[in-house]
Amino acid sequence: MIQEASLYHANGEPIETINKLFAMLKENNTLNKYKDIWYVYRRCIRIILDDHLPKNQFEFRPTCEFSSIEGGVSSNASFDQVTAEFALDKIMRILYISIKNMRKPPPQIDVTNKRDNMVMQQMRRTSYLSEIEFLYVFALRCKGLQCGIGSNFFTLLMEYIDHFFDKADVLDDLKSYLKLLNN
């Protein structure tokens, strides 16, 4: 599916590209099918925030509310399909809310099952890394967005460190994002 999405992207078909990536990520967003495909999440974020929105003159504002459910975005969004009629900020909010929702334990999780707990931890880690990537790319496009101490970006980095300092190479995961803290 990633090659199909790449072909759509190369042909300048952003909605088809986004929908292919969303379909892949939605399928991956279950305990039984989850794979560590961080690179697909990252590519999807970059295609939407770094390519599709700027090409359509989206105004990156420091006051943007990513988790707003206005405009028909469900608070339970999970990489829902989009259409060309969708407002640009709606596509962005579907992506953001879907990324955050990966942290919610699915109803089918068996908390006594070691494998389920391990997969859920991997999904949470991917969710945090994806949200960090989202805020990073947004901040690079949005002049005036605060990224220092006390900002949402800084708070998210600290949460990630708190949750995963003993489970992952946190320094390697975050080093490319730390340059925003100098702004």
Provide a count of the helices. Answer: 7
| Coarse structural class | mainly alpha
- The proportion of residues in beta strands is under 5%
Rounded Rg: 16 Å
Number of domain units? 1
**SSE series:** HHHHHHH
Question: How would a crystallographer describe the biggest sheet?
Answer: none
Ends apart, CA distance between termini: 38 Å
Name the helicity range: 55-70%
**What's the overall average pLDDT, rounded?**
88
Query: What is the approximate shape?
Result: globular
- Number of E-type strands: 0
Unreliable runs, pLDDT <50, ≥5 residues? none
Structural notes for this entry:
With 183 residues, the chain is an all-alpha fold. It has one domain (2-182). Helices cover 56% and strands 0% of the residues. It has 7 helices and no strands. The chain has helices at 2-10, 14-28, 38-55, 88-101, 114-141, 152-164, 170-174. Helix 1 (2-10) runs antiparallel to helix 2. The longest helix has 28 residues, at 114-141. The radius of gyration is 16 Å and the shape is globular. The protein starts with a helix and ends in a 9-residue tail after the last helix. The model has no long low-confidence stretch (mean pLDDT 88).
Break the fold down into its secondary structure elements and pairings:
Blueprint: H1 2-10, H2 14-28, H3 38-55, H4 88-101, H5 114-141, H6 152-164, H7 170-174
Helix pairs in contact: 1-2, 2-3, 3-4, 3-5, 4-5, 5-6
Keywords:
single chain; 183 residues; mainly alpha; 56% helix; 0% strand
